[in-house]
Hints:
It is a single chain. With 312 residues, the chain is of the alpha/beta class. It has helices spanning 47-54, 76-82, 98-108, 113-126, 142-154, 172-189, 200-206, 224-230, 244-251, 275-284, 299-306; strands spanning 3-16, 19-27, 30-32, 36-40, 62-67, 70-71, 83-86, 160-164, 192-197, 209-214, 217-223, 233-239, 256-262, 265-270, 289-295. It is elongated, with a radius of gyration of 25 Å. The two termini are 39 Å apart. The model has no long low-confidence stretch (mean pLDDT 90).
Amino acid sequence: MEDVIRTxxxxxxxxxxxxxxxxxxxxxxKVGRGEIFGLxxxxxxxxxxxxxxxxxxTPPTSGEGYVxxxxxxRRSREIRKIAGLVPERAGFYWDLTAxxxxxxxxxxxxxxxxxxxxxxxxxxxxxxxxxxxxxxxKGFSRGMVQRLALAQVLIKQPKVIxxxxxxxxxxxxxxxxxxxxxxxxNKEYNVTILLSSHLLPEVRKVCHKVGxxxxxxxxxxxxxxxxxxNVKFKIVVELDKLDKEIVEEVExxxxxxxxxxxxxxxxxxADNDVRLEISKIVFKHGRLIKTLRVLRPxxxxxxxxxxxxxxx
Length: 312
């Protein structure tokens, strides 16, 4: 798969007086054509700075970066012609209508008027704002403003879209609508999308691949299913009667740790699915299994595990 976005040791250091703040630390990132890639991490992890460098809005301190083979240091104008950004807080002229705003931004992108009008009408229809195209933006909800920001990007017919916390502050319905638009863009038009977020449900429901970012670095990359498989199994077992000998033998299974025993139930973690081994031990002791199931690890557990926290 062709890499639409790639970086090598991309670094950004901000100087505030005598202080030096390392915002992005030797970042190595690859996003393939047609992917929806989630850049996941807490606030301050360096996600926004990374996006701004890739668009040429912030110069890197060192390292390399390319968007569709355009060098971010030397050819940022070309990048901004074929890539768009939806920021967390989109800015519009609030007294102007949606149509007037988009006409203005189309002129800034040097799109001919006759071409711009067709693209604007298509973009407004795509994001579901055609009925409100002649309404001043100051009357729009937060979700409508974010959809208008997406329409603004679409009038350039971009090949790459950067979404920086696009659903922050949206209600569940607004977030759902936005996710559908993102998936439709990717599926129908093969647009490559880099989605930055600290909201776990957003990346889980939309992204093909996720990169976990901490302290300016990518610390783990993978497909959601792969990441879930790499986390230890959590297994709950309930018997008709739990004998001490059963617990001791289960603890001796390679890679198993008994986390908690409560009554006739015990919980454990394991490097792989050890339900068969557990069943053999229980059968040997003549006990009845009432419950034996795997608690599938969640993306939240992966997140806290990678970020150095824990989940009770």
